[in-house]
Amino acid sequence: MKKYTIIFASICILVGGFTAYMARAFLHSPEQMVKIYTNQTNYDYQNLITQYEALLANARIIYKTLDIRTGDLTVTENLIPNFMVNRTKDELQNIFTNWEILNFTENDITIKRIIETLPEAEYTLSINEEFIVIFIGTKEDNNILEITTMTYDHLPSADIEILERGIPLANRDELIRRLEDFSS
């Protein structure tokens, strides 16, 4: 009988300890739990939280491009493309390698880059999974100027094939003309 009493007491201690441990986990905020388990007093809690924060479907993207040759700052704001939904800051930094993420929340992302255009910059129009994309230089340079909100699913298949390969354009006027053609 003494043997069963010892086993029963051991089980009660284990269950009680586990219950106390779990209660402690539920009584603290995520920030407090990180502090408890990392034993760090100067932990960057905001960075930890935003590391796992992902963009919502109705989030906005703000592109800021500074041309150091002309001093022009171009700011464009759009809804994010579908491929960016549910992506984290780290995932997007890996996609937008030529851009710096200035601000990131679940509702918006602001990215910037500094470029130096030639007096008459060359552009390339192409597509990604869903939208028409503007590149500075060639598509292979992967120097994205902007991911437009213009879809291409309404275009004839011949135009889509041409866009997949990339359409080189000599200057901004030609770029604007081609964008207008695809938007109608």
Strand order of the largest sheet: 2-1-4-3
Order of helices and strands: HHHEEHEEEEEHEH
Shape label? elongated
Could you tell me the radius of gyration in angstroms?
Answer: 26 Å
| Amount of beta strand | 25-35%
N- to C-terminal distance: 88 Å
- Secondary structure category: alpha+beta
**Helix content range of the residues, please?**
25-40%
Q: Please, how many helices?
A: 6
Number of strands: 8
Major β-sheet annotation: 4 strands, mixed
Low-pLDDT regions: none
Mean pLDDT: 78
User: How many separate structural domains?
Assistant: 3
Short description:
With 184 residues, this protein is an alpha+beta fold.
Structure explained in plain terms:
The chain folds into 3 domains: 2-43; 54-115, Ubiquitin-like (UB roll) (Roll); 118-184, no CATH class. The mean pLDDT is 78. It is α+β, with helices and mostly antiparallel strands and 184 residues long. The chain is built from 6 helices and 8 strands, in the order αααββαβββββαβα. Helices cover 39% and strands 27% of the residues. The longest helix is centred in the first third of the chain and has 26 residues, at 2-27. The N and C termini lie far apart (88 Å). The strands form 2 sheets. A 4-stranded mixed sheet has the order 2-1-4-3, with no helix packed on it.
Q: Which features characterize this protein?
A:
single chain; Ubiquitin-like (UB roll); 4-stranded antiparallel β-sheet; 8 strands; 3 domains; alpha+beta; 6 helices
Write the layout of secondary structure elements.
Blueprint: H1 2-27, H2 30-38, H3 45-52, E1 60-67, E2 73-79, H4 89-95, E3 100-104, E4 108-115, E5 123-127, E6 131-136, E7 144-151, H5 157-165, E8 167-169, H6 172-183
Parallel strand pairs: 1-4
Antiparallel strand pairs: 1-2, 3-4, 5-6, 5-8, 6-7
